[in-house]
Amino acid sequence: MQNAGIAGVGIGLRREHYGEILQCTRPLDFLEIVPENFVGRGGAPLSLLRRCAERWPIAAHGVSVSPGGGDAFDGDYLAGLGALLGECGVERYTDHLCYAAIGGVAYYDLLPLPFCTAAARHTAARIVELGDRLQRPIAVENISFYATMPGSVQDEGDFVREVIERADCGLLLDVNNVYVNAVNHGCDPLEMLWALPTERAVHIHLAGHIREGERLLDNHGAAVGDPVWALYRAVMGRHGPIPTLVEWDTAIPALDRVLDEADKARAILQACALQREVA
Amino acid sequence: MSAPEMTAFFAAMAPMLAGRIDAAQVESRLGPSPSGTAALGFYTELVRRNLHKIVSDVFPAVRAICRTDGGEARWVQLATEYAVAHPGTGADPNHFAARFPQWLVQQSGVPAVWAELADYEWTRLLAFHAPDVSADIDGFDARLFIRQYSSDIPRLAVAALRGEVAAAEVPVLVAVFRHARTARLGTFRLGAAGLAALARRRGLPLPASLGALSDDAIVQAADALVEAGVLVSARSPDHRSEPCTHD
After folding, report:
1. What is the value of ipTM here, to two decimals?
2. What is the C-alpha separation between B160 and B103, in angstroms, rounded?
3. Is this structure's pTM higher than 0.95?
4. Chain B nearest-CA residue for A104
5. Do the Cβ atoms of B88 and A65 come within 8 Å?
């Protein structure tokens, strides 16, 4: 499965780079937006997005739809989201395998579900509904989780696989989250990686993390770490080139610095493609 | 865990995420977290940090002036108390912060100027993000807001963000707006003629205090407002006057 229209290596469209993104002359294959920053809004950001969409393919990665939540989807928001995706030519909507609100209260965080079949069935049904309402294929991201929820009877990989197979959707494989989770839960990163349904990966995320005490925090506020690059190479080696996004959302540096990181990913991705051609 | 138990899961997690119960109480209802009680409880802290960050990001000048006055602890206290009183709703995180200015007004020991500063920052955010309207509509209360402050809040905001203290005890009347054509955010200081021009554009009768203004002065003020991007050109053949929805 490939994310139609998206290939190569992209970065997130962030406010800190609004003033310079259109002047970018370096390699950049696509931009990813957080649609919550644009739905129902206007002004300069939307105008900029429209100009970006004329130049680059746009990917959309939501944070508030709450695919695993218990509340009904916000119909007004989904209508606005669908319109935005249509206007920007986004062919696949991606979100997180999590919940983000309970009883109308939004927590503005990506909260883990219990790893069990009931939660998988519940979430898969909602992902199907989301795809129907947006009239687009969906991919969901494996999130970083700092605690396994009460009621869990599966490991993360089995849970993610069950959701994705029941929903017949794609996996947005966040390699940094795999590493952060492995360290925080005392697991082998490669074992956690291959436990996920990586064969369903349509899109990859790379990001940095920080250490806070004994815990790694997935804060998207640093360069991609070497162990994460190693996992990325492993995925490329097994599955071939997959569209890849470099995320940098906290302490965001200059655009050139983010693009430096994207260049690293592109070099790995291109080397992988070349090796597969030779083989 | 069955479907009804998913309901129980969410019902147990909600008060913990809001900080009303602790992780041990969640475990007493749902069973133990395989990661341990402390790890489960970390989610209360993560949510608190997120909500705190939203308020800090939306109100950087209030935060700056608060930190100057009472240190970071004072700001953390305010942001935390606000978050407890106002759970987030909706997809847009910024709207979690919507009631912060009014909430500040009600807090004892908070200088009135902080609430005005918060209102100014929130108003700028509203103008910045307002949905686009037709280019021949002024967009009152969407991309264009009129505010009267007891102090020179725009000057105070700039100074606060620079870490400076400004003498700002002069009342001001300002238009906070997104430029009608360029979409840049701006603040325009209004005099009597400017206020009269805005009132006229909205079809409002001029109060007696502005009755002595000449028509030429009001027209010149309107031209200046158009030039600054506060108003759209009324000379456009497409220009439509807007109904006045509220004062």
Report:
1. 0.94
2. 21
3. no
4. B89
5. no
